[in-house]
Amino acid sequence: MRILPVTLGFRGRLVATMVVLVVLVSLAIGALFMAYLFEEERTRALTQLDIGERLTEEVMARRTNLELSRLSVVVQDFGFLSAIASGDRATMESALNNHSQRVDAAFAVLMNQDRQVLASNLAGALPELNNAMFESAIHQGYGRQWLALDGQGFELLLVPVQAPGLRAWMLAGFALGSQTAGVIARLSDTTVLFRARSGDRGDYQAFATSPGVNEAQQESLVQTVSGERYMDNPHYFTRVVPLSGRDNHLQALLLISRDASLQRYYQRAGEVAMLVLGILVAAALLALYLARSLGRPVLQLADYARAVGGDTPAEPPPVQGSGEIRQLNQAFTDMVRRLREREEQIRYTATHDDITGLGNRNALVQFTRSLFQEHRHCSVVGLRLDELSEINDSLGLELGDRVLVGMAKRLREAFTDAQLLARTGGDEFLALLPPMSSGQLEQRALAAAAQLRKPLLLDSTPFSLRISVVTLELPEDAANANEFRRRLNLTFEKASDHPDTVMRYQPGEDESHLRELQLIADLHAAITGDGLIMHYQPKLDLATGQLVQVEALVRWRHPDLGQISPEEFIFLAERSGQIHDLTAHILTLVARDARQWQSQGLDLGVAINLSALDLAWRGLTEHIAHCFRTDEGDVGHLTLEVTEGAVMEDPENAMVVLNELRSLGALISVDDFGTGYSSLSQLRRLPVRELKIDKSFVLNLTDEPQDQLIVKSTIDMAHGLGLKVVAEGIESLDTWALLQSWHCDLGQGFALSRPVPAADLPRVAGELAARRPKLMKHSTETLS
Ligand code: C2E
Ligand code: CA
Ligand code: CA
C-alpha cells in the first residue's frame, strides 16, 4: 500500500489544525469534567455517610432510651421487687428470666450492692464491667457499656433496683441485630454492617447486616483494616462508626455502593464523550467550511497567477472575501496590472527605436513575417543617410541623433499612409506602404527623397544630407525576410554608386550575388586543396609554324556549379583578397608542369597571366624566382602577361615591379592590347617585350577591314618599337595566313589548338609538328 503523501495543502493543514485543536480542548474539558464528576460523586457519598453516621448515633440513642424505659418498668415491678426481697436465688432467677424476656434483653444479671451476682441467665461468666458504668448509674440513673461477646455485639445497660434505697443492680444485655442495622440502612440510604472483635487485636467478625448484603460482601468488608473513618474499597464508599468507645471492639460500617455511582459516572462520561464527538464533528465541518471559503479565493488567485504567466489572456477571479483575502486579491490585481504595464513598456521598447520613436528592426521582422505568412503585398521605400558616421565622428553623437530625429519627422510627413515606418539600421529608414504600381512607387520615393535632401536646420545651420533611395515590391522582389534583407542591402549598395536616382531592385541580382558569395567561399578550398588545374594553349611561330610557347590558363570545376570561367573567379578572387594566394598557387602548378614536360624533352616557353593586383604584391618577384629559377640563375623561357589596364592603373609601381621581373629574366607581354587606352609611346618606357593583340580584333579578322587596319598597323608600329607581336583568337587558317603575311610573330587560337592539360602537351606538340607543312602551305596558297 502506498503511503499517502505527507504534504498537505493549505486547506488540509487548516482543517487538521482546527480538528487537533478541538480534540485537545475537548479532551481537556472532558477530563476536567470527569474529574469533577468523580469528585462530586465522592463528596456526595461522603456527605451521605456523614448523615448516616449521625443517624446511627441517633438510632442508638433512641434504642437506649427505649430499653431504659422498659427496664425502669421492670425495676419498679412489684413482683420483681418481691422476688429480690425474698432473697431466694431460684425465685430471683425466675423473675429475672421473665422480665428480661419481656424487655427483649438477650440476657440479664442481678447484682447486690457489692456487685456480687444474685441471679443471672447469662450462659457464661459475667464479663468485666466498667466502674464508670456504675458511677454513671449512681449519678444519672443508668450506666451503659458496649460489649463484644462470642462474636456478638451487645449493649449493656445497668440500672439500680431501689425499694427505696439501693437494693440491687440490674444489668441487661441487648443484642445488636439486623433489625437495628435495617433501621439505620433505611433511614440513611446506606448498607449497614455491624462487626465485632473479641480481643484488642483479633479479627472483626460481622454479626449483623442490613438486608441485601451477601456473604461474600460481608467477608470482604469485615476484613478491612479498622481504625480509619474511611476505608478504601473498590466497591463501596465506607464509613466506620465506632460504637464501643476506645477499645473499638464494636463498629458499625456504613456502606454506599460505588457501583451505582460509578455507573452514573460512566453514564455521564458517555454523555460527555458524545458531546465531545458532536463538537468535534461540528468543528471539522466548520473547519472545512472555513478552509473552503478561505482556500477557494487563494486557489482562484493561484489559477489566475498561472494563467497570467501563460499565454492565454486571463480575467481576475471574482474573489468574494474580506480582510486579508480582499487585500491579497487587491495586491494581486495591482501586481498583475503593473506587470502588464511593464510588459507593455518592454514590448514598446522592443519594437521602437528610442531615438526617433519609429519602429525598429524587430518591428520590421514582425511586420514582414506576418506579411509573408499572409501573402500580403507591400511597396517598400528604403532610405540611407550616407554620411551619418561622418556627422557622428566630426560633430558628435548628439547632433547625429538630431539629424535622425529630423529625418524621422520628414519621413512621417512624406509617408502618412505608411503601414510601418522604421529605422532598421544606424542610418537606414524603411517605409512600408500599401501596394502601388512601380511608377507610382518611384514617384513617391523621388518626392520623399527630394523632401529629405532639403537642408536640415540645426542650430540655424543648414545641413544638406546625401541620401540613397531604393524601392522594392513585396512579395515580388523577395519571398521571405532573409531575401528581403539581402536584396535590400544589395540595392542600397548599388544605389550608393548612383546618387540622385531611385534604385529599383532588379530580379536576378540577388541570385548572381549569392552565386558570387558561394564561389568566393569555395574558392579558398579550391586553392588550398587541389580544386584547380592548369591547361596550356600552344603559341606558334608564324614564320616557321613551330610550337615555341604555351599560355597557362587556369581551370576550376566547381563540385556543384561545374566549370567556372577563369574571368569570373579571378575577378572574385581579386575582390575577396584571394588573388595573391591564387597566383602563387598557379605559379607553383605551372612550374611543376613545366619541369615535367622539360624532362620529357619538350623545350617550350610558358606564359603566365598576372592580375592587375599582382603588381601590387610585394612578394611576387621572390615567389616567381623561387618557383622558376634554374641552375643558371634566371627564369628562362618565362613570359608574364599583364593587361594594359593593370599597367596603367599605377604606372610608377608597375615600372618598378616589371623591372624587377625583367631583371629576373622573365619577358613581359602586354595582354589584351587595343582594349585600353594606352598608347605605344607610353609602353615604350616600360620594360615590355611583347604585345598581345586582343582576340576581339582577331576573331573576325578576315571579314572586318577595320580590324585588319588596327591589327596591321599595331604590328607595324610595335615592330618599329622593337616589340614582338602575338595574335590570339585565331579561329581560322585564313586569319593565320593573313597574320603570317603581316609578319606577326606568334599566333594562338582554337584553329591551332585549344588549351589542353599538361599531360596532353606531348601529343599536341606531335600533332602540331605533323600539321606544320600543311599550315605553311596554306599560307603560301592563300597569299599567292
Ligand atoms: P586571356 O589572357 O586573354 O586568355 C586568352 C583567352 O582566350 C583564354 O580564355 C583562351 O581559352 C581564349 N582563346 C584562345 N584562343 C581562342 C580562340 O581561337 N577563340 C576564342 N574564342 N577564344 C580563344 P580563358 O582560358 O577562358 O581565359 C579567359 C581569361 O581569364 C584570360 O584571358 C585571362 O585574362 C584570365 N586567365 C585565365 N587564366 C588565368 C591565370 O592563370 N591567371 C590570371 N591572372 N588570369 C587568367
Ligand atoms: Ca593572356
Ligand atoms: Ca588576351
Ends: how far apart?
Answer: 120 Å
Alpha plus pi helix count: 24
Sheet with the most strands? 8 strands, mixed, barrel
Parts with pLDDT < 50 across at least 5 consecutive residues:
1-5
Shape from CA axes?
A: rod-shaped
Mean pLDDT: 87
Question: How would you describe this protein?
Answer:
By secondary structure, this protein is α+β, with helices and mostly antiparallel strands. The chain contains 24 helices and 27 strands. The strands form five sheets. Strands 18-19-21-22-23-24-25-26 form an eight-stranded mixed barrel, surrounded by five helices. A five-stranded antiparallel beta sheet has the order 2-1-5-4-3. A five-stranded antiparallel beta sheet has the order 7-6-10-9-8, sandwiched between helices. β9 (236-242) and β10 form a beta hairpin. α1 crosses α5 (178-188) and α2 (78-86) packs antiparallel against α3. It starts with 9 loop residues before the first helix and ends with a helix. The structure holds ligand C2E and calcium ion (2 copies). Residues 551, 609, 641, 671 line the site of one calcium ion (CA). The site of one calcium ion (CA) has 6 residues, from β23.
